[in-house]
């Protein structure tokens, strides 16, 4: 991996490479460059996860001409595809170097769903284990009990915005979750269930199921279960699997599109 990154930088294929570097024994995101090529020796894979693709997106917003190499798990690759489908990044400016997915020494089980076509990078060591969770499991509960359960979860929210801030596919410049007509400032928990339902709608057809939101949530709200449910509806209605193809989201109306036939929404 180090040799590949060094070759990319020396040859000019990329200007910068986003990966991990050990600092005081902990791997943190680091931007490697040709000017500091010796730092590539410190390149490492990370058991901890950071949204490197979100950092790459922010860098490209500031300098659209920069060419970025990206250390990427499968979920990172899905995020890159989603960002490209929403015209947030230019795929010609991103070069992906795939890394091992979990499980790892730190996690003996990984709730990973992954690409069906591993064509986005020259290195591929292993896949994560398929998820054991299924949003349809909730259907065995009566509707009233499901509602009580979700209201209980939502009421734990402290409105830290950790789920939004770490999400690799949250890119709105003006976030509806901070709009004064929707959310009262200084109110904790935020209005239940409006806050989390707004975010769930935004995640439909966009969530790549990376699980970073759940890892960031300090009160343990099962956000992944909620977003899987809305994504499942998108898959059932439109046949769209997020990040697994180069197709645009059915909710992306930029460019060419065809009207949705109302009959397709009939149950």
From TrEMBL:
InterPro entries noted in UniProt:
4Fe4S_Fe-S-bd (IPR017896), 4Fe4S_Fe_S_CS (IPR017900), Helical_ferredxn (IPR009051)
A Pfam cross-reference name? Fer4
Q: Which Gene3D superfamilies match?
A: Alpha-helical ferredoxin
Q: Name one GO molecular function term.
A: metal ion binding
Transport: is it a keyword of this entry? Answer: no
Q: Where is the 4Fe-4S ferredoxin-type domain?
A: 198-228
Q: Which UniProt keywords apply?
A: Iron, Iron-sulfur, Metal-binding
Q: What is this protein called?
A: 4Fe-4S dicluster domain-containing protein
- Which species expresses this protein natively? Desulfacinum hydrothermale DSM 13146
